[in-house]
Structures are given as structure tokens and as C-alpha cells.
Amino acid sequence: MSADPDTIAFYQARAPHYVLKFGQAHSHQLDPFLDRLPPGGRVLELGCGGGQDAARIAARGFIVDATDATPAMVAKANERCGVGARVMAFGALDAEAAYDGVWCHASLLHCPREALPDVLARIHRALAPAGWHFASYKLGEAEGRDSLGRFYNFPSADWLAAQYDAIPGWHIAETRQYMAGGFDNIERDWIDVIVRKA
User: Fold this and answer.
1) pTM score of the predicted model
2) Is the four-CA dihedral 95, 47, 107, 3 of positive or negative sign?
3) Angle at 95 between CA 7 and CA 97, to 5 degrees
4) What mean pLDDT value characterizes the chain?
């Protein structure tokens, strides 16, 4: 299972509040990621939330396929941004060489560790040759839940790198570690991973 039911239920119930807090501006990592892609390329977003990143991707001239496993988030993204978002869990991705970029801002961090290798393999397969992938994770040493009951995989940087390195033809181009807060207002260590398909 690539989605934790309690986490989906949390976002389903709290979508308006979440979007109010995080849905006003696109992610600061997005434009540098898009600069790596061919102009007008296709970008898949896994975990589109309130749609602000998908709207920015479209505004930059890319074709965006915005998805989220939470129906209330998809509804919010379409209501606010008109991005044509659709409901899809990570494990349902079955595209092949269809996207120039796969954007996963603060979304794959909810994927159980045992399911992550399959999800990463699906992302790799969905990317066109020389395609790019971005994901951000909250760092830790063991899976667990935050104070709001949301599930996180909480990987170490080394464990995470090993999951990407296990897929042939994938190269980690860049990682960045930093401190940042979240919906629970707790500062944690994060890592951004940028990967390129051969």
C-alpha cells in the first residue's frame, strides 16, 4: 500500500485549513527544478495539494498532470487553480516514458518504506530519457507519526540514497539538507533530492 489511510483521512478532513496555510505561494524549489526541463515539456505532480505548484508549472508553459491521493485536495486544486487535477495514489502510476519531470514536493515522505522502492521504480519508468525527478523528505531514523497522526517514512539520508541508487540508470544529481517547519509547527531536518534518468 502506497498511501496510509489515516493520513489520507487527515488531509481529506483538513484540506481547507491546509490550503489556507500552505497554498498561497508555490514552492521555492520549483523554478530551479523547472529550469532543468525542456521548454513546454510534460510534468507530473504527485501530491498536488492546493494546486499552487501545478499552477506555476502551467504558467511557466509546461503541460502539467496534477495528481493527489486525497479527493478533497484535488477538489481544492481545481477550485482554486483550475489545473485539471485528478485523484491518483502513488502506486497507481503506470505511465511509461511520458514525462520530462516528476515533481513530488512534501508528498513521498508519506509513502511507507516498504512501498517506496516500487513507487520510485514507477516514477523512473514514467520519466522520458534524461527526465528529472524532485522529492523532499523529512529526515529521521524510523517510520512514525507526527503529533497530528500523519504517517511519515522519516528516512536517513544514506537509506534514501540507497533506494534511488538501487534503480539502474538513475543518478542523484543534487541533494540539499535544511531545517523547516510543517503543518504541525515543528522544525525538523529535511532533504531535497534531485535525480536524473539516464
Assistant:
1) 0.96
2) negative
3) 130
4) 95
